[in-house]
Amino acid sequence: MINSIKNDLPTPCYVIDEKRLVENLEILKSVEDNTGCKILLAQKAFSCYHLYPLIGKYVSGTACSGLFEARLGYECMGKENHVFSAAYREEEMDEIISCCGHIIFNSFSQLARFREKVLKAGKKIGLRINPQCQTQKGHEIYDPCAPGSRLGITPQEFDAEDLGGVSGLHFHTLCEQDSDDLEITLNAVEEKFGKYLKDMQWINFGGGHHITRKGYGITRLEKCIKRMQEKYGLEVYLEPGEAFALNAGYLVTRVLDITRKDMPTAIVDTSAACHMPDVLEMPYRPPLMGSGLPGEKKYVYRLGSQTCLAGDVIGEYSFDEPLDYGDRLIFEDMAIYSMVKNNTFNGMPLPSVFLLTRGGEVRELKRFGYEDFKGRL
């Protein structure tokens, strides 16, 4: 479907695939239905609020990381809204409390500073814990359990005498991982914090669960959820982000020029640094529709951006036919960590956002221009 409309779209642009989004939502809803857990959209991965009314039909609410996300979830979905921040600003706390039902703290000092205010508002308090159980490999920037992590209270720091008003514990240790790593983490949580769970009302498994990826172990996930429910009588929350819009979006770009240095290089009107930052941060090679690995197909190109950043290179791809000026290319899996992390470095325009509906209609959700660039400065 996306292939048939690519020439009608302005470039660069994001296109959200409603059909694929709903397929993901149905999987997440089935986990809620099968276990009685509550799943929250982690807005840090996908914050296209135009679709919050749709998402809210399938799951229990939103998770946020500060005031602006708290307001967005409260205003645009209006269901359960949980917030965690490594530290809260005093001047924002009243508004955060007004938007969120669960306030999760990263330290006992933050708990002491805001506990009375949260309890007076009738909201629930949680503490983020760090079970010091590393299951990620090679990406310490995304690993909350890595040495030196500032996220979560370790067993050594945990003050069992200062739990007044605390009704739940939260951990977040995963990134694009399967339920076997969740099970390993849960074992560590029980070993190091299990003695406190009997006094809690809820537990939040955080995010990083790749629930909607093909082959993900949903049966084991549901077993982990039921284990906490049955053993400790806890209400269980999960707050995946990527799983909501996994493989449910595209970034359409256009070839502006082809240069020939050590190899043919296609200059396109999108940017890894500006429009898909995880390409450089992870790093990873984003899927490109109709292409192959270098050498897999006859014509091999390096794809790079217009920007002046020498390393603003998306990757090397091969094609059945040579690329030419004006050709449209479609990057896949571009709904997550793209719109929420993009920027206007070098004056690059922000990509417009479109929705490809289940009925095949293309609807413009947002178009950006010079004033959006200027306004951020």
Account of the 3D structure:
The model has no long low-confidence stretch (mean pLDDT 96). This protein folds into 2 domains: 2-16 and 249-334 and 342-375, Lyase, Ornithine Decarboxylase, Chain A, domain 1 (Beta Barrel); 36-244, Alanine racemase (TIM Barrel, Alpha-Beta Barrel), CATH 3.20.20. A hairpin with an 8-residue loop joins strand 12 and strand 13 (313-319). The protein is 29% helix and 23% strand. The two termini are 38 Å apart. It has 377 residues and is α/β, with parallel strands linked by helices. It is elongated. The chain has helices at residues 2-5, 18-35, 52-55, 67-76, 93-99, 108-120, 179-197, 218-232, 242-245, 272-275, 278-281, 370-375; strands at 13-17, 38-42, 61-64, 80-84, 102-105, 124-128, 166-170, 202-204, 235-238, 249-260, 264-268, 299-304, 313-319, 328-332, 352-356, 362-366. The strands form 2 sheets. Strands 1, 10, 11, 12, 13, 14, 15 and 16 form an 8-stranded mixed sheet that branches.
